[in-house]
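Journal club prep — side note

Before the paper discussion, L.F. wants everyone to see what a predicted structure for a comparable chain looks like in token form. Sequence:
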Amino acid sequence: MGIVRTGGGIFKRMIMALAIMLVASGAASAEYFGAIAYSPTSGVYGFSYDHGSRRDAEARAISECRMRGRGCKIAIWFKNACGSVAVGSNGWGTAWAGTRRDAERAANRNCSRYTGGCRTLAWTCTSK
């Protein structure tokens, strides 16, 4: 039995090109999670972005919030997007969207459904 040789140079280049395409497609479809935690009683918040899972993003946001005060809970989580929390005189609202501007506007609209004087308290975006 003899050794069978393939066009080593061409074969290696094809394998290398395939590997590069697989890595590039994996990076393009990466999922980045973010979250904002908020305490309606104390007004403190914490946020996170670019985590590999929703759980990790929420844990970081809660941790950040609890370092500042009590009563923290997850207000919103999002994937490959931006999130925002708006607060008013007697309530609050959240939203997520593809851009910071859209997330802030939507959170303020949602807040305005429950109370007046709404303003953005916190926002954050993933790298997408």
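L.F.'s comment for the group: The beta strands are 33-38, 45-51, 73-79, 82-88, 91-97, 119-125. Keep this in mind when we get to the figures.
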